[in-house]
Design brief:
111 residues; alpha+beta; six-stranded antiparallel sheet; 32% strand
Length: 111
C-alpha cells in the first residue's frame, strides 16, 4: 500500500483529475467513517485507488485534537490517496504526474 497527501479542492475534483489523465472510471461513495470519498477499482488494471479527505468526519467537539484528522502531521484541508495492493509503480507514477506536489507518506512493498 502507498498513501499520498495531495492538495485539491475536494475528493471529486481530485478523482476527476486522475480520471482525465487515465480515462479510468471512478465511483463516489459515502461512509460514516470516511465521509465522501471516491474509488477507482482496478486502476490501470492493477490496484484499487481511493481518495479521501484527511478530515475525520466522525470528529466531534471535545474529542482529542489528534482525532480531527487521519494523518495528524497534515491539516484537515488536505486529501489522501490510498493505493492498495501495490503491484508496480504505474499507479504511483500517474499520481505523481497528475499531482506533482503529492507527498508520499507511507509505502509498504509486498515481499
Amino acid at each position: 500500500m502507498a498513501r499520498f497527501v495531495i492538495n485539491a479542492k475536494d475528493v471529486v475534483s481530485a478523482a476527476e483529475r486522475l480520471a482525465a489523465a487515465t480515462r479510468e472510471p471512478f465511483e463516489c461513495r459515502h461512509s460514516d467513517y470516511l465521509g465522501k470519498y471516491c474509488i477507482f477499482q482496478a486502476f490501470l488494471d492493477a490496484v484499487d485507488v481511493s481518495i479521501i479527505s484527511n478530515a475525520d468526519p466522525m470528529y466531534r467537539p471535545g474529542d482529542p485534537a489528534e482525532d480531527k484528522v487521519f494523518e495528524s502531521q497534515f491539516g484537515p484541508d488536505k486529501l489522501l490517496i490510498n493505493v492498495e495492493r501495490e503491484v508496480g509503480s504505474d499507479a504511483i507514477d500517474v499520481i505523481r504526474k497528475v499531482f506533482p506536489d503529492a507527498v508520499l507518506i507511507e509505502r509498504h512493498v509486498s515481499a
